[in-house]
Structures are given as C-alpha cells and as structure tokens.
Design goal:
Largest sheet of chain C: 2 strands, antiparallel
Radius of gyration of chain C: 21 Å
CATH class of chain A: Mainly Alpha
Number of domains of chain A: 1
Shape of chain C: globular
Number of strands of chain A: 0
Helix content of chain A: over 70%
CATH topology of chain A: Helix Hairpins
Strand content of chain C: under 5%
Largest interface: A-C, 31 and 27 residues
Chains: A mainly alpha (132), B mainly alpha (141), C mainly alpha (494)
Largest sheet of chain A: none
Structural class of chain C: mainly alpha
Strand order of the largest sheet of chain C: 1-2
Oligomer: heterotrimer
Number of helices of chain A: 5
Number of helices of chain C: 20
C-alpha cells in the first residue's frame, strides 16, 4: 500500500476512524448517555461516507447555474452528485429521531431506577429477579 | 439569566430575524440548499432561544404544548394530503404535474406545499421534544 | 382506483397515525386504528389477487420513471408478506382496544395507536418498496415506533429492554445504510430491479462483497438471528401484550423478507450461494439457534419470556430453510413466515388474556387456570400444539416442508431432519410445562377470576381457527409459498 494510495483515500480513513471510535464508545461505556453519544459518532461516520462519495473533484455545488428564471442555463458544468447528500439528509433526520427517543428513554430509566449506569441497573434487575 | 438586560433585549431583537430566516430557507428550498426540515429547526431555535432567556412558562403562553403537538400531526397530513390531491386529479401519488398546467410550476408548487408540511411537522416535533426535555423534573410535564 | 393500490397500502395507516395522535379519546383512536388496519388488509388481499392474476405490479411515485424515481414493486413474494403483516395488524388492532385500556395509562392511549399505525405502515413499507434507501427509511419508521411501543410496558424493565433494542436496532440499521451506500458507489443505482441487473457486472469487486457483509449483519440484527438476538427476549417479555403479539408475528418476518429480497433478488441466488457461501454461513447459526434457544426456553419461568426464546428458535427454522438453498427449503421458510405469525400471534394473545385477568404470566401464577379461563387456555393449547408441529395444525405444514427439504438433499442432511424432529420434542417440553401448570395444578389466586372478555377472546380465536384451517387445507398457502420460492430462486434452477 503506497503512501499515495493512503493519502488519496483520506476520507475513508477518517470514516473508518470515526466509525471505530463510535463503536468503541458504544460497547465500552456503561453510561446510557455516553452510549448514545457513541451511537451518534458512529452514525456521523456514515454521513461522512455518503457525503464524501458524492463530491467530485472540481465539481460545483449542484445548483442551477445561470439565472434560473427563463434565461439560458449554463450547460456542461461538472457538479457534485446531490443524491447522496439528499439521502444523508434523511439519515440525519433519522439520527436525530433516534437520539431523542434514546434520550427520552434514558430520562425515564433515570426516573425509574435512579441511575444511568448499566451495571447498577443490571444489579437492581438481578435483585428483583432473585426476589421473585 | 433573567436579570441580564443585554441578553433579554438581544434575544427579543433576534427572534423576528430568526423566524424570517426560517421562512427564507423554506421558500428558497427548491432552488438552493435548504427546505422544510432546516426551516423547521431554525424556527424552533427562535422559540428555544426565548425559552432560555425568558423561561419556559413565558414561551408556553405564546406557543402552548398542545399546539406544537397539533403541528406535528398537521404537517404529516399536509404532506400526505398533497399526495392524495394529486391522486384525485388523476396522477400518481405526489405527481406534482397535476397541480398546474405547466409542469414547471406544478413541480414548484408541489415541492413548496410538501416542504410546508415538513416545516410544520419538524417545527411541531422539535418544539414538543424541547418542551418535554426542558419541562422534565420541574413538575411541568 | 385499483392502479393506486400500492401507495394506498402505505398512506392509509400512515395518515391515520397523526389523526390518532391528536384525538382526545382513547376509544376513538382505537376504532380509527381498527378501521385503518382493516383497510390495509383489504388492500393487501386485493394486491395479492392482482399479482396472482397479472404478474408484477409496479407503481411510480410522483410519476417519476424508475430507476430515477422511487418505485413500489409488488411481486408474489412481497404480496405474500404484505398479506401476513396486514392480517396480523388487522387482528391485533381490535384485540388491543380492551387490552391497552388495561395495561396503558389512558392519556397515552391515542399515542399508542399512533405508534401502532406507524409501525404497521413502516413494516408494510419495507415490504412493498422497490427502492433500497426507501427500505432504510421505512425500517426506521417501524423501529422507532417499536421502541416507543415496547417502552409503554408496565414493568420498568420495559424501559431498559426498549433502550437495548434501540441501541442494537440502530447499529443494525446503520450497517444497512453502509451496505446501501457501498452498492450505490459501485452501481449508481438504488432501484432494486436495476441493481439486480447491474450487480453481476461488478461481482468481483471487494466493495460489493463488503456491502454484502454489512447488509447481512444489519439485517440479521433486525431479525434476531442467533448470536445477535440478545435484544429480543426482554423486549417481547416486557412490552404490552398486544405489542408483543404484533411484533412477534410481524417484525421478524419482515426482517426475514428483507434478507431474502437483498440476498436472493438483488445480489441473486447464484452470487449468494455460489460465491458468498451464504448457506454454509447460515446453516450452523440456524442449527445452534434452534437447539440452544429451545433449551433455554425450557428453563424459563416467565411464560412470555419462554415464548420469546421460542421465537428465536423459530427464526432459526426459517433461516434453516433458506440455508438448504433449494426451492423446497425456501418454500418452508416462506410458509413458516405465515404459520409462525399465526401460532405466535395466538399464543401471545392468549397470554394477553391471562395478563388481563390475573396480571401476571409467571408459570406459578398460571396454575389451575385451565378451569378458570377455559377458552383462553384452550387457545394456548392449540397454539402450543401448532408450535410443536402436531398434524392438523399449521406448525406441522412448516416442519413437513422443512424435513422434506432436508431429505431431498440426502446424505448428511438427513441428520438435520432428525434434529428438526428432536427440537420439536423440546418444544413439546416447554409447552407442556405451561399446560401442566394450567390443567393439573390447583388454582390458588382470587376466587372471582373468570374468563377474559369477548373482545379479547374473539381475535385470539380467529387466529386459533386460522391455525387449524391452514393446517388442514394448506393447498393455497403452500401453493403461493412455492410460487414465491421459485421466483426467488430464479436463475439457479431447482
């Protein structure tokens, strides 16, 4: 693997790094809020993947060039692919929805158990199960 | 923060501009970056700013929680309704060409209407989420 | 209007949901939900009829022609799954009217129905759409509403169960998005039919194989295949009864459909079985799932939890059918989608009746219930027999095709057939534990305990009757399943 290859694919390295960081937080942290933070970092890496794949070197933003109101539009412009960007907008919205549902659950877990630490919750649940 | 006069006046001055910006982002959403989702979030930000400075109760007098929840439902109905109307006019679901004789304007109106639905829903949902989290643990939920 | 049926399938429940959310009265929302889910069933049946009569139905949203626009594409496979999901939705909706009033705080009831309809439309959407990214969007609609529905359960452990499901479900969905993105990079298309044509050209690419892996792991998380099933037992055990009945009989089925659609239709059966060795990956997982989860189920004291573990085992049977890589095996998978929905639906609904009367499904609390709630427990017994696979029930039909598929392959596969029989005996053990408690032990609870109300019993018995009817007359279901299996295995022969 040459240095050139390494540098020219830098966006993928960033994506992989972010993905692993997010995944590591998700698995290793016991705090329910931190887990959601990890999930967010994990999802953000995918957003980066999509956004960087739509970018074309030297491409303009995918906006109509020219006046756009009946005048002649400039043709043959190299523009970035807007589709992955639009798709990822949807995924960002989904991510926000997931985050807010997760946080809402965390709030209610805190109210029901008095803690947000996973091992304490597990201990409480084990105690309840043993007493049944 | 309730005694800080600069913050209070600043928030008051900024609010109408934030709301205007939200509408700008919405109405230019079909030709330039932007659209209903971004506009809805910006609109919510205006009210969140007021709530941070003036307190939740003051904002809820202007924008009651039942209204934000109604908005959340209404937007989905607007979006779906546009699709149902195009179906009634003999086109497929969300076939905007049905909305005007010239397809160029049909697409334009269709996108604006659908994005209006998105705007209303996102505003309603975001404001409801903000209220729920902000009001938690203060006996206001 | 018949041309618009594919989109109506989605928007009827989708638009009824926000209306439910703003209604003040729980009963009004309930009846709206019943109406919407029944219309969804009618539409699904009409679609199945259309597909059987005239082949694939394609619907272009916004008049944009595929592959540029989003296409809804109904062939025999997803018409079949649509009928499964919609009929379970239609049976559970009237059941939940009374059950939900008993288990959920009254101010949350309209929101419950909103989430229920969203979940239904999400699942129908995953099934009907012909666009990859659309699958992800509908997947999240159904998942997010499912997290909310599960968290409505009365025990506080419902919250942690929903949270765990949320984390694992989101990871699974994100994996699916990565897979879709990589496919888009390689082909520039998101339309399933278009992808199926473009992918053979890039089969050799490592990106496509990585995409395959991401999609596989993501979908297997959603369908709770053996090592990825950890979210399922608690989520099913602590959710409100109608939610458990609905989720158990639809959510995992739709995930299995996704697996079949992605791997057999889009990548193609030839690529999956010959290049990626999908059958050799899935076979051990399925076998371990069936054996170990049946074993775990035997030792459960919470009957809802017991059935949840049994569900993971039953998912193992579905994947087992797929790993045969033959039309008969796949017929067994597709049949078991429907049959398992019927039996688990009936069982969980019977348990919902028990919760309604005695508030617990602990095996000791159910002692002697056979005399107190004869109809409920009779429904449980029939559902249980179906789970075991006794002749004249639908469970028998699934196992029959599964064993037939194994014997057809001959050689070492005969051992798989024997294993299916052995695990049926394990199912008999865990069903028997409940039956023994209910019929052979003395009732020790409140003397006034009586039969569950008719509005709970009637939907339960509709499913019980279906268990028996389709167990005796399997010609129609098996015919559709075989036709669908042939479509999926197209290009690889039988």
């Amino acid at each position: 693997m040459s240095l050139d290859f390494f540098v020219s694919h830098y966006n993928y390295w960033v994506v992989i790094f972010l993905m692993m960081v997010g995944f590591y937080i998700l698995i290793s942290r016991g705090n329910l809020i931190k887990k959601i933070v990890g999930l967010n970092v994990f999802q953000t890496s995918v957003f980066m993947l999509y956004i960087s794949m739509g970018k074309i070197t030297g491409g303009t933003p995918p906006i109509l060039v020219g006046d756009g109101h009946g005048g002649e539009a400039v043709e043959h412009v190299v523009y970035s692919n807007p589709l992955p960007h639009v798709l990822i907008l949807t995924a960002i919205v989904v991510g926000i929805a997931t985050t807010s549902v997760g946080l809402a659950l965390a709030v209610r877990i805190k109210e029901a158990y008095g803690t947000l630490e996973e091992d304490e919750i597990n201990r409480i649940e084990a105690l309840v199960e043993a007493s049944e | 923060m309730r005694e800080e006069i600069i913050v209070r006046v600043g928030a008051k001055i900024l609010t109408p501009f934030i709301i205007m910006f939200a509408l700008y982002v919405h109405f230019h959403g079909d030709y330039s970056p932007g659209g209903g989702f971004q506009a809805g979030v910006i609109l919510t930000a205006a009210f969140a700013l007021l709530a941070l400075v003036y307190g939740l109760a003051a904002v809820q007098r202007v924008l009651p929680p039942w209204f934000t929840r109604l908005c959340a439902a209404l937007g989905v109905v607007i979006y779906g309704g546009v699709g149902v109307v195009t179906m009634m006019l003999g086109h497929n679901y969300l076939g905007y060409n049905a909305l005007a004789p010239d397809p160029k304007y049909g697409q334009h109106y269709g996108i604006l209407l659908v994005e209006l639905g998105v705007l209303v829903t996102v505003f309603g949902v975001m404001a409801s989420v903000f209220y729920l989290f902000a009001g938690r643990g203060r006996g206001e939920s | 209007m018949t041309a618009q049926l594919p989109i109506l399938q989605i928007i009827v429940p989708l638009l009824a949901a926000p209306i439910c959310a703003v209604l003040r009265h729980g009963r009004a929302a309930a009846w709206l939900a019943v109406l919407a889910s029944w219309s969804a069933l009618a539409i699904a049946l009409a679609l199945l009829g259309q597909v059987m009569a005239g082949g694939v139905v394609s619907y272009h949203i916004g008049d944009w022609v595929p592959p540029i626009g989003i296409e809804y594409r109904v062939d025999i496979v997803n018409a079949w799954v649509l009928v499964i999901v919609a009929s379970m939705g239609a049976v559970v909706a009237p059941y939940s009217v009374k059950s939900v009033e008993h288990e959920i705080a009254s101010r949350r009831i309209p929101l419950f129905y909103a989430a229920y309809l969203l979940c239904l439309s999400g699942l129908l959407g995953i099934t009907i759409t012909g666009d990859m990214f659309n699958v992800f969007v509908f997947l999240e609609i159904s998942s997010l509403s499912a997290y909310a529905l599960i968290s409505l359960g009365r025990p506080r452990r419902a919250l942690t169960a929903a949270y765990r499901y949320l984390i694992m479900g989101s990871v699974g969905a994100t994996f699916i998005v990565i897979g879709i993105g990589l496919l888009y990079v390689m082909t520039g298309s998101l339309n399933m039919a278009d992808l199926a044509e473009l992918l053979p050209g890039v089969w050799d690419s490592r990106t496509v194989k990585v995409a395959y892996g991401f999609l596989g792991v993501g979908v297997c998380l959603k369908l709770a295949l053996f090592p990825l099933h950890l979210w399922l037992p608690n989520a099913y055990a602590f959710a409100p009864s109608p939610v458990t009945a609905f989720m158990a009989s639809t959510a995992t089925k739709v995930a299995v459909y996704m697996l079949l659609r992605f791997f057999l239709s889009i990548f193609g059966a030839a690529f999956s079985f010959d290049v990626m060795a999908l059958d050799r990956v899935l076979l051990p997982l399925a076998l371990v799932a069936v054996v170990s989860m049946s074993l775990v189920a035997i030792f459960q004291v919470d009957v809802k939890r017991l059935l949840a573990y049994s569900s993971v085992a039953q998912i193992g049977y579905m994947i087992l059918g797929l790993s045969f890589a033959s039309v008969t095996g796949l017929t067994a998978t597709l049949l078991h989608l429907f049959n398992h929905a019927l039996m688990k639906g009936a069982l969980f609904m019977a348990l919902g009746c028990v919760v309604y009367r005695i508030g617990s499904v602990h095996i000791d609390a159910m002692a002697g219930l056979g005399k107190r709630m004869p109809w409920t427990m009779a429904a449980f017994v029939v559902g249980g027999l179906s789970l075991v696979g006794v002749p004249l029930t639908v469970g028998f039909i699934s196992k029959w095709y599964l064993i037939l598929g194994a014997l057809e392959k001959g050689g070492p596969w005969t051992a798989v057939a024997v294993l299916v029989l052995a695990t049926s005996v394990m199912a008999l053990v865990y069903v028997w534990r409940v039956v023994e408690a209910a019929y052979l032990r003395e009732f020790s609870g409140d003397e006034t305990t009586g039969e569950a109300p008719l509005s709970l019993l009637a939907p339960t018995w509709v499913l019980v009757a279906a268990n028996l009817y389709f167990g005796i007359d399997a010609v129609r279901t098996a015919g559709v399943a075989r036709q669908a299996a042939e479509v999926l295995m197209a290009g690889i022969g039988s």
